[in-house]
Amino acid sequence: MPESRFADRPGAVTSDDGIAHFGDPVREQRRLAAGAAVVPRDDRAVIEVAGPDRLTWLDSITSQALTGLAPGFSTELLVLDPHGRVEHEAAVLDDGSSTWLIADAGDAAGLAKWLTMMRFRSQVEVRPRDDLAVLGFVAGGAVEERVTAVSERPNGLALVWSDPWREVATGGWQYAATASHPGADYAWTEAIVSPDAGLDDLEGAGLLAAEALRIAAWRPRWGREVDERAIPHEYDWLRTAVHLNKGCYRGQETVAKVHNLGHPPRRLTLLHLDGSDSVLPEPGTPVLQPTPGGEPSEVGHVTSSARHHELGPIALAVLARRVPADATLEIAADGARIAAAQEIIVPADAGATAAVPRLTRLSRRPLAESQPPAK
After folding, report:
1. Distance (Å, rounded) from C-alpha 284 to C-alpha 223?
2. pLDDT per residue over 193-208, tens digit each?
3. Residue ranges making up the domain that contains 308
């Protein structure tokens, strides 16, 4: 995708993914959370899927029920391998004429190639849209109206995707055993815009700010959490990306088997890190469990980390299912041992659905065949 014009602003500090911050990551995070700043998502890319068969075709090859997706409604999909492992992930929005996918930049080319290979006789066309950019913001604030007004609308409907993580989608399932899921307050939104959208006067926030809000909401991401062993259950991704009552698709057998009969071998957890050390662990850093009188054992790894403006240093980590929920863990980073306390996202008994309570849906945007037309 084209490089953001925000990179030319004074104080912009760039990383391999894009603009990390504009000089004050904590302030930027507060402004972003308040809906007063936008994040140039140079780490995201856009794919357009056109053609009359697009929704039924995507429905048949992905984890999400898309045949009845109404224009303007937001969802997400996963592409699984035959063993149910996550290969690709994308945000999904249809405008009545095309389906728009937003994917992590590192995954977009692979996803577009796979979709192109899967067309066969379907009347669809897959178009990577490297001419378009993505802006992220929190809905409900001062920037929402401005960004929506300049977002692309090639078929008359603004290309603005609302992250469905705020609710348990129709056909989905939540493993997190809490009635106050932090995702309920995660009003994350992404708009597809022209690189010359004319938003130079808006306040900018960096990717560090966006990542901190995502981690605090327990929100998994392809570019951070997913590895070659990942199955959706381990990340509580059945909340929004998997429809358990739809027809056959690749990997469905594993999804159903683990959900109904077994337990996922690993589980995502939020770690609250000891803030006395200034070190934040990098993705891939081993998570250790101390053992009495011996060397600590490696029980998982960090996938994402950030300094949250309220929670302090936090991280997402994938742990072995056997790790006790009350175990105090350690992370070895830059020669230091950082104490880490767990906040359980996916419980160890996830997968035995009879033991997992179905929580009240928080939905404000139902994703079902009976969706009303967008206003």
Report:
1. 12
2. 999 888 888 999 999 9
3. 266-345
